[in-house]
Design brief:
Order of helices and strands: HH
Distance between the termini: 69 Å
Radius of gyration: 22 Å
Mean pLDDT: 77
Strand content: under 5%
Low-confidence stretches: none
Largest sheet: none
Shape: rod-shaped
Length: 56
């Protein structure tokens, strides 16, 4: 166990900071996946409409 309160505080801050960064990265990745699945990359139109046009 660490008895130095300043070191303990710094370790806690570093841990919280890394968790925050991981959460931000996860939200960004989900947003990018959601955007990629909802738009057709070549035309920038909603994917369902693009599929309908191709199958017609």
């Amino acid at each position: 166990m660490i008895n130095d309160p300043y070191l303990t505080l710094e370790l806690h801050r570093a841990h919280v900071e890394s968790l925050t960064a991981d959460a931000r990265g996860g939200r960004l990745a989900r947003a990018l996946r959601r955007h990629a699945s909802s738009t057709d990359a070549t035309e920038g139109t909603p994917a369902r409409r693009a599929l309908r046009r191709r199958s017609a």
